[in-house]
Amino acid sequence: xNIIFFDGNCAMCHWAVLWVAKHDNKxxxxxxxxxxxxxxxxxxxxxxxxxIAYFENGNVYFFSKACLRIAWRLGxxxxxx
Length: 81
Known about the structure:
It is built from three helices and four strands, in the order E-H-E-H-E-E-H. By secondary structure, the chain is an alpha+beta fold. Strands 2-1-3-4 form a four-stranded mixed beta sheet.
């Protein structure tokens, strides 16, 4: 399961989620706020960032590494990022 965790209080994070959802042609991503129950369950004992975390195959990525993994997973021209 590929979950993008984002800051539920951040307008820029909401914009980023909308952008990824628009370009997720394969529908591989799920989205959840860092302040929610899903984040509390999946990211136990992990110091959460204030911006973005990406959960993929049991691994958690933060910040730029999360963004690069998401771009790679989107495929197409986004792989070149």
